[in-house]
Design goal:
The chain is of the alpha/beta class and 487 residues long. The protein folds into two domains: 4-281, NAD(P)-binding Rossmann-like Domain (Rossmann fold); 285-486, N-(1-d-carboxylethyl)-l-norvaline Dehydrogenase, domain 2 (Orthogonal Bundle), CATH 1.10.1040.10. The chain is built from 21 helices and eleven strands. Strands 5-2-1-6-7 form a five-stranded parallel β-sheet, with helices on both faces. A hairpin with a 4-residue loop joins strand 3 and strand 4 (89-94). Helix 7 packs across helix 8, helix 13 runs antiparallel to helix 14 and helix 13 packs antiparallel against helix 21 (462-486). 48% of the residues are buried.
C-alpha cells in the first residue's frame, strides 16, 4: 500500500533531511492526539532538523486510538502537519518519532518497561484535564475516580496515566536508574503543579517511601502551549491527500501560529526546543494565565454563544461584527485587567492577534468541539477573572454571559428545539439538573452551586447569581445573536 514512507511526495512538501537512525527514544509521550502531533512533536522534529539532536519520541496511546497507532506504524512513524494560513498552506513531514505502543498491542508491562528504559529522560503528556483524575474544586486527587480505584487495587496493571508513570518510576528507583522529568503539555492551569500533586497523592496511597523519592528526585516543569488544532475530519484528511499525493490517516491541520513557554526545570536533560521557537523561563504562570483567560476564555465564550447562534465554526462567528467585538471586549475588559504580566507585555496587541487567529477561514474549528468538557474548563478560563472583578467591584457582564451560554448549551436543546450532543465528564449530573428545572432561570443557582465547577465565593455570590440569571433570561427571550449584540 502506498504511504508517506514509500512514496514520492509532492514537491511542495517539506521533507526532513536529518538522519533518523541517530535518534533515540529519549522522550515517551502519553497521548498521540491532534494537538501533540501539531505542537510538541513538530518542535522536536525541527530541533532534529536544525541541530545535531538525538531526541526521538515513543508515542503511547493508553486508551482509544489503536487505529491511529497502527497507521503510524505502517507508515514508518512519519506523518503530515499542514499549517493552514488565510492565504497559503505549508506542509511538513514529521520524522522524529522512533516507535509507538498501545497496551492492547504491546501489553501493559511492555509500556511500563519502555518508560523505565535508562535513556528515557522525559515522560510528557497530552491527556486532557480528565487524565489527571483531579477534583477541579479542590485540586486534589479524586479518590472516587474509577481509574484511581482500579489502580490502587492493582498497581501492577495500571489503567490511568498516573498509574503508568508511578509504576515506571518505581522500576527506575528499584533498579538504581535515574528518574525522568514528568512534563505536562495539557491546557491546564499550573499543569506541572497539578501533575506533581496528583502523582504524589496517588503514590502516597500505594507507597509512602516511593512518594518521598519521587518528591525529592522528579521534576514537573509547567508549560504553556498554544496552537489552534482542530480535530481531523474526513475533509482534513482529503485535503492532506491532495497536498502530499498519498493518504495519511495520521495527518493533522493547524494554524501557522504556535507558542510554547516552558519552565526550565529538567532533571535529566532536554532538547533545545528554543532553537525551534520555544521560550524557556523561570515562571510560566503569567503567560499561562494570559492564554487561559484571553484565548481560551474567549474561545469558550464564542463556542457556547456561537453554537447557540447557529455558527458551526469559530471563524464563522468572526463574520458577525457583534461577536467579533464581544470577543475582543471579553479579552480586554473582562480578562486583561485580571492579569499580572511581566514588563513590556502588550495585551492589546495579543488580543488583536487572537482575533486574527480566530478569523482564519482555513481552520474549520467547530464551536461544538470547543464547547466540550465545559465543567472542566470554566473554572480555569473564567473563575480567576470573575473572582478579580468581584474583589474590585468592576463589570463582569461578558463572563456572566459566557457562563449563561454554557448553561443554555448543556440544557441539551438548541434555539430551534434540536438536540445538542453534550460531551462532558459530568454530563449525566448536569443533564439531570437541567431537566429538573427546564429552560428557566431557576437552573442558574442550581448549576452555580456545583462546587467542583464554581467555588462557593463565586457560586453563592448574589451578584454572580443575578448577573448570570439576567444573561440566561436574555438568551431565552432574545436568542444568542441578539444577546451578544446587546453587549
Amino acid at each position: 500500500m502506498k504511504n508517506i514512507s514509500n512514496s514520492q511526495l509532492n514537491e511542495s512538501v517539506n521533507m526532513p533531511t536529518y538522519n533518523r537512525s541517530t535518534l533515540k527514544t529519549r522522550i515517551v509521550h502519553l497521548g498521540f492526539g491532534a494537538f501533540h502531533r501539531a505542537h510538541q512533536a513538530l518542535y522536536t522534529n525541527e530541533v532534529a532538523q536544525k541541530a545535531d539532536s538525538d531526541w526521538g519520541i515513543c508515542e503511547i496511546s493508553l486508551f482509544s486510538s489503536e487505529k491511529i497507532i497502527s497507521s503510524l506504524k505502517e507508515q514508518d512513524h512519519l506523518y503530515t502537519v499542514a499549517e493552514k494560513g488565510a492565504q497559503s498552506t505549508q506542509v511538513k513531514i514529521i520524522a522524529c518519532i522512533t516507535e509507538s505502543m498501545h497496551p492492547k498491542f504491546n501489553g501493559i508491562e511492555a509500556v511500563i518497561e519502555k518508560m523505565a528504559e535508562p535513556q528515557v529522560a522525559i515522560v510528557s503528556m497530552t491527556i486532557t484535564e480528565k487524565g489527571y483524575c483531579i477534583d477541579p474544586a479542590t485540586g486534589l486527587l479524586d479518590k472516587n475516580n474509577e481509574l484511581v480505584i482500579s489502580d490502587i487495587k492493582n498497581p501492577a496493571q495500571p489503567k490511568s496515566a498516573l498509574g503508568y508513570i508511578v509504576q515506571a518510576l518505581k522500576l527506575r528507583r528499584d533498579r538504581g536508574i535515574n528518574p525522568f522529568t514528568v512534563m505536562s503539555c495539557d491546557n491546564v492551569q499550573g499543569n506541572g503543579h497539578v501533575a506533581k500533586a496528583a502523582i504524589l497523592e496517588f503514590t502516597q496511597l500505594l507507597d509512602t517511601k516511593l512518594a518521598t523519592w519521587i518528591e525529592q528526585n522528579v521534576t514537573f516543569p509547567c508549560t504553556m502551549v498554544d496552537r489552534i488544532v482542530p480535530a481531523a475530519t474526513e475533509q482534513t484528511l482529503s485535503e492532506i491527500t491532495n497536498l502530499i499525493g498519498v493518504e495519511d490517516p495520521c495527518g493533522i491541520a493547524c494554524e501557522p501560529f504556535r507558542q510554547w513557554v516552558i519552565e526550565d526545570n529538567f532533571v535529566a536533560g532536554r532538547p533545545e526546543w528554543d532553537i525551534a521557537g520555544a521560550e524557556f523561563v523561570d515562571d510560566v504562570v503569567p503567560f499561562e494565565e494570559m492564554k487561559l483567560r484571553m484565548l481560551n476564555g474567549s474561545h469558550s465564550f464564542l463556542a457556547y454563544l456561537g453554537y447557540l447562534g447557529g455558527f458551526e465554526h469559530i471563524s464563522d462567528t468572526m463574520t458577525d461584527l457583534s461577536y467579533r467585538k464581544a470577543a475582543f471586549d471579553m479579552m480586554m475588559q473582562a480578562q486583561a485587567p485580571s492579569l499580572t504580566m511581566p514588563e513590556g507585555a502588550d495585551l492589546e496587541s495579543y488580543a488583536a492577534l487572537l482575533i486574527n487567529r480566530f478569523e482564519n477561514p482555513s481552520l474549520k474549528h467547530q464551536t461544538w468541539q470547543i464547547a466540550m468538557d465545559g465543567s472542566q474548563k470554566i473554572p480555569q478560563r473564567m473563575g480567576g477573572s470573575l473572582r478579580f472583578h468581584l474583589e474590585q467591584g468592576s463589570d463582569f457582564k461578558w463572563l456572566a454571559l459566557g457562563i449563561a451560554g454554557w448553561m443554555r448549551f448543556i440544557s441539551g436543546v438548541d434555539e430551534q428545539g434540536n438536540d445538542i450532543d453534550v460531551r462532558d465528564p459530568m454530563a449525566t449530573m448536569l443533564r439531570e439538573i437541567c431537566d429538573s428545572h427546564g429552560l428557566n432561570t431557576s437552573v442558574v443557582p442550581a448549576l452555580l452551586s456545583i462546587e467542583s465547577i464554581f467555588a462557593s465565593e463565586i457560586g453563592q455570590n448574589v451578584q454572580v447569581i443575578n448577573a448570570v440569571k439576567n444573561a440566561y433570561q436574555s438568551l431565552l427571550n432574545n436568542g444568542a445573536k441578539a444577546t451578544v449584540a446587546a453587549l
